[in-house]
C-alpha cells in the first residue's frame, strides 16, 4: 500500500515508518524539516511541509493523491513560536480528512492522546479531541489510537525527562510521585498502526493503548533507574510549588523556542494521571500490550543511555552558564573598558586600537550571550562563540603573548570555556 505518515521522524512516527517498510508498504513521510530524516531513511519519500499552514482540503490534495492510507503521528504539546495547537491538532486534521475523502483514501489512523477530551480546560487535550472528532465524523475507515506513556529506545520530551530524573545522583526527585501511569511500548503502537493500515483491526474504533495495570510515577522512575543499571535510590517527593515554578520557567523558555517537557501542559497531563482502559484493545487483539518491565527488557540499556540520561538535565545548566558567562564578560568589559584597554596598552598596543578592541569584544560577547538562549539561532551563537574565542586567543598571542603567563590566567581559562561550547553543540539537537 501507499501510506502517508505525518510526523514521520518523531518518537512514534519513525518507529511506525520502520514497521510499515518491513511490512512491504511504500511510505511517504511529512514534516517541517525532513533533511535529517531523509538521511536516516533514504528509502522513504519525504515531503517538507508545515501542517499548521495546510488548513484547507486543497492544500492537502497534492499530498494525499495516490495514497491508500494516512497515519497522523504529528502533534505538539503547547503553543509557542514553532507550534500552534489548534492549527496542528484540529484545523489541519479537519482539512486532511476532507482531502482524503475527495482523493479516495480509504484508511486513516489517528494517533491521539490519553485524556483527549472536548471539555478539557487544557488546550492540548481539547484540541486533540477536536481532531479526533473530525476523524470520527468522516466516512473514512478510521482508527483512533490513544497511547499512554510511550517507551522507546529513543527518548524525547517527557520520556527523556523521566530518564534524567531516574539518573539523578543520590536520589530521585519527583513532583506528584503518586500519580498513576500506564505505559506502552512504541513497538506495540507501531504494531497497532500496522494492523489498522492493513486491515486486521476493525475500523471505526477508538482504542486506548496502555499496559493492563497502572503504577505510580515513583515506581516508573525506580524501574527506569534499574534499567539504566544505576544503584537503587529513594524517590524524594518535590513540593508542588517547585513544579509550578519549573513549569513557569519552561513556559518562558517556550517563548524563545525551547520545547521543554516541564511546561505547564505536561505537568497538567501528569496531574490528571496518564491512564486509560485496555479493555477495548484486549477485545480486538490476540495479545495484551506488554508491561513496562517487558518493554525495557526488550531494549537493554548501555553506556549511551546512561550518558543521555545524565547529560539531559545538565543541558539547560550548560546553556545557562554559557549565556551568563558571555553576558557578564561583555558587561564588565563595557563597565571597565579603560582598565581592559590599559592591559593591552601596557603590552604595546596603541590606546585607540585598544579601546576599539575592548568595545567590539564586549558588544560581541553580549550579543552571543543573549542569542544562545534563543533556540532558532542557538547553533549560530555557539559557532560564533568558538570563532570569537579563537580570534581572541590568536590575537592575544600575536599582540600580547605574555598574557599566557599571567598569574590570573585570562587566556588559559578560555580553553575550558571553549570546551563547554563544544559540549553545548554536541547536545543541542532535540531529536
From TrEMBL:
<feature type="domain" description="NAD(P)-binding">
    <location>
        <begin position="7"/>
        <end position="194"/>
    </location>
</feature>
<dbReference type="InterPro" id="IPR051207">
    <property type="entry name" value="ComplexI_NDUFA9_subunit"/>
</dbReference>
<dbReference type="GO" id="GO:0044877">
    <property type="term" value="F:protein-containing complex binding"/>
</dbReference>
<feature type="transmembrane region" description="Helical">
    <location>
        <begin position="312"/>
        <end position="333"/>
    </location>
</feature>
<dbReference type="InterPro" id="IPR025695">
    <property type="entry name" value="DoxX-like"/>
</dbReference>
<dbReference type="Pfam" id="PF13460">
    <property type="entry name" value="NAD_binding_10"/>
</dbReference>
<dbReference type="InterPro" id="IPR036291">
    <property type="entry name" value="NAD(P)-bd_dom_sf"/>
</dbReference>
<keyword id="KW-0472">Membrane</keyword>
<feature type="transmembrane region" description="Helical">
    <location>
        <begin position="381"/>
        <end position="404"/>
    </location>
</feature>
<dbReference type="Pfam" id="PF13781">
    <property type="entry name" value="DoxX_3"/>
</dbReference>
<keyword id="KW-1133">Transmembrane helix</keyword>
<protein>
    <submittedName>
        <fullName>SDR family oxidoreductase</fullName>
    </submittedName>
</protein>
<feature type="transmembrane region" description="Helical">
    <location>
        <begin position="353"/>
        <end position="374"/>
    </location>
</feature>
<feature type="transmembrane region" description="Helical">
    <location>
        <begin position="410"/>
        <end position="428"/>
    </location>
</feature>
<keyword id="KW-0812">Transmembrane</keyword>
<dbReference type="InterPro" id="IPR016040">
    <property type="entry name" value="NAD(P)-bd_dom"/>
</dbReference>
Amino acid at each position: 500500500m501507499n501510506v502517508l505518515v505525518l510526523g514521520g521522524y518523531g518518537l512514534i512516527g519513525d518507529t511506525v515508518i520502520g514497521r510499515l517498510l518491513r511490512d512491504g508498504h511504500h511510505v511517504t513521510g511529512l514534516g517541517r524539516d525532513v533533511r535529517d530524516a531523509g538521511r536516516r531513511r533514504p528509502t522513504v519519500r519525504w515531503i517538507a511541509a508545515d501542517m499548521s499552514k495546510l488548513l484547507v482540503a486543497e492544500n492537502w490534495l497534492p499530498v494525499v493523491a495516490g495514497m491508500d492510507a494516512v497515519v497522523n503521528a504529528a502533534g505538539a504539546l503547547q503553543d509557542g513560536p514553532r507550534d500552534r495547537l489548534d492549527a496542528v491538532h484540529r484545523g489541519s486534521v479537519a482539512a486532511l480528512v476532507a482531502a482524503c475523502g475527495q482523493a479516495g483514501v480509504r484508511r486513516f489512523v489517528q494517533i491521539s492522546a490519553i485524556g483527549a477530551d472536548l471539555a478539557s480546560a487544557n488546550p492540548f487535550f481539547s484540541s486533540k479531541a477536536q481532531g479526533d472528532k473530525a476523524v470520527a465524523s468522516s466516512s473514512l475507515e478510521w482508527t483512533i489510537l490513544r497511547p499512554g506513556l510511550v517507551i522507546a529506545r529513543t527518548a524525547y520530551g517527557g520520556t527523556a525527562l523521566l530518564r534524567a530524573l531516574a539518573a539523578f545522583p543520590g536520589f530521585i526527585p519527583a513532583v506528584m510521585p503518586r500519580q498513576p501511569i500506564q505505559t506502552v511500548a512504541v513497538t506495540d503502537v507501531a504494531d497497532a498502526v500496522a494492523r489498522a493500515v492493513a486491515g486486521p483491526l476493525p475500523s471505526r474504533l477508538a482504542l486506548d493503548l496502555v499496559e493492563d495495570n497502572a503504577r505510580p510515577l515513583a515506581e516508573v522512575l525506580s524501574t527506569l533507574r534499574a534499567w539504566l543499571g544505576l544503584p537503587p535510590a529513594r524517590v524524594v517527593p518535590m513540593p508542588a510549588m517547585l513544579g509550578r515554578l519549573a513549569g513557569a520557567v519552561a513556559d518562558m523558555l517556550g517563548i524563545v523556542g525551547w520545547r521543554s517537557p516541564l511546561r505547564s501542559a505536561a505537568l497538567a497531563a501528569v496531574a490528571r494521571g496518564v491512564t486509560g482502559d485496555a479493555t477495548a484493545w484486549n477485545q480486538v487483539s490476540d495479545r495484551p500490550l506488554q508491561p513496562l518491565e517487558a518493554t525495557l527488557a526488550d531494549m537493554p540499556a548501555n553506556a549511551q543511555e546512561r550518558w543521555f540520561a545524565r547529560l539531559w538535565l545538565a543541558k539547560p545548566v550548560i546553556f545557562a552558564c554559557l549565556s551568563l558567562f558571555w553576558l557578564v564578560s561583555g558587561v564588565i568589559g563595557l563597565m571597565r573598558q579603560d582598565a581592559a584597554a590599559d592591559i593591552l596598552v601596557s603590552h604595546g598596543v596603541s590606546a585607540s586600537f585598544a579601546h576599539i578592541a575592548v568595545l567590539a569584544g564586549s558588544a560581541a560577547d553580549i550579543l552571543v550571550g543573549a542569542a544562545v538562549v534563543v533556540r532558532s539561532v542557538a547553533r549560530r551563537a555557539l559557532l560564533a562563540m568558538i570563532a570569537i574565542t579563537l580570534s581572541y586567543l590568536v590575537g592575544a598571542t600575536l599582540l600580547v603573548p605574555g598574557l599566557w603567563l599571567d598569574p590570573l590566567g585570562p587566556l588559559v581559562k578560555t580553553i575550558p570555556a571553549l570546551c563547554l561550547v563544544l559540549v553545548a553543540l554536541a547536545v543541542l539537537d532535540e531529536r
